[in-house]
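in:
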C-alpha cells in the first residue's frame, strides 16, 4: 500500500487527482474508513476525505482518530493535509499560502489523542510538523513559482462558530498567524501514530474585526477551490520529487519515534 496519503477538505476530489483510482475501505480498530488509492506521476498515494460521511459534519464531530488509525494500519508514513483558514493579521492577506510549522490548540470537546487508556506515550511536539516533509513541500512550491510563506502558526479552535473580534486580537497577540478548526487535531494524531505530517494552509477570509464584512462561509467556496487546485499542483510536484529521490523524507527524521509507548 502507499506510503503517502492526502487528508483533504471537501474541495479535494480524488477522482480528479489520481490515475487508476479505486475506492477502498481501510480498516481501523473498530470499523473502516473510505478512501481512494491511485497514482499521481507514477507515485502511489491514498486520498482520504477528512469527513467521509457524505454529509456536513461540524469540526468537533469528525472522527480524526479513525482517519489516522486507518492510514497507520495501511502502512502510510507521510501525511499531507490542506487547511482552509482565516487570517489573524493584515500582513497575511486573503489568498496567502503558508506551510505551517507551529500550532496553538484551543480545541475542546472532541477526540484529542490517538492513544487509548492502556497504551499511550508522551509525544514530543516541539516541531509538530515534520521538518523534512515541510522542506519537500516548500521546494515544490518554489518549483511552481508559488509565493508561499515557509512558516506559519495556526490557532486551532473548536468551531463551528466563528470568533469574536476580541478573540482574533488575542490569538494574534499570542503569536498566531491564521486560524482554523481541524488541523491541530490532525497533526497531534499523526505525530502520536508515528507518521510524518505537513500542511498547506490557504487563507480564504479575514478574521473577525479585520474587515467590515460579515463572517459567512458561503462566500468562501471559490477561494477554497482555488487553494485546492494549488495544493494539487504542489502534491504533483512532490510526488515527482519523491519518486525520483526515493522516500528520503525519513532520513534523520524523528517523527516515527517522537511518542514512545510507556511501559
Amino acid at each position: 500500500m502507499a506510503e503517502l496519503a492526502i487528508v483533504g477538505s471537501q474541495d479535494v476530489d480524488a477522482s480528479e487527482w489520481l490515475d487508476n483510482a479505486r475506492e477502498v475501505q481501510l480498516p481501523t480498530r473498530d470499523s473502516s474508513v473510505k478512501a481512494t488509492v491511485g497514482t499521481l506521476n507514477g507515485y502511489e498515494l491514498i486520498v482520504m476525505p477528512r469527513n467521509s460521511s457524505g454529509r456536513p459534519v461540524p469540526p468537533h464531530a469528525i472522527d480524526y482518530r479513525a482517519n489516522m488509525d486507518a492510514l497507520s494500519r495501511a502502512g502510510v508514513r507521510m501525511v499531507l493535509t490542506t487547511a482552509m483558514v482565516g487570517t489573524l493579521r493584515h500582513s497575511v492577506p486573503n489568498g496567502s499560502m503558508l506551510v505551517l510549522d507551529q500550532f496553538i490548540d484551543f480545541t475542546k470537546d472532541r477526540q484529542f489523542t490517538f492513544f487509548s487508556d492502556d497504551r499511550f506515550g508522551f509525544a514530543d511536539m516541539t516541531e509538530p510538523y515534520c521538518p523534512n516533509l515541510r522542506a519537500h513541500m516548500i521546494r515544490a512550491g518554489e518549483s511552481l513559482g508559488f509565493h508561499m510563506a515557509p512558516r506559519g502558526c495556526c490557532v486551532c479552535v473548536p468551531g463551528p462558530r466563528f470568533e469574536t473580534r476580541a478573540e482574533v486580537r488575542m490569538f494574534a497577540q499570542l503569536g498566531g498567524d491564521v486560524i482554523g478548526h481541524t488541523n491541530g487535531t490532525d497533526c497531534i494524531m499523526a505525530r502520536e501514530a508515528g507518521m510524518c505530517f505537513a500542511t498547506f494552509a490557504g487563507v480564504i477570509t479575514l478574521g473577525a474585526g479585520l474587515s467590515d464584512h460579515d463572517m459567512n462561509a458561503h462566500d468562501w467556496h471559490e477561494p477554497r477551490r482555488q487553494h485546492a487546485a494549488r495544493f494539487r499542483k504542489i502534491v504533483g510536484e512532490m510526488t515527482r520529487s519523491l519518486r525520483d529521490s526515493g522516500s528520503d523524507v525519513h532520513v534523520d527524521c524523528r517523527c516515527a519515534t517522537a511518542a514512545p509507548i510507556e511501559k
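note: The domain at 4-257 is CATH 3.40.50.1580 (Rossmann fold).
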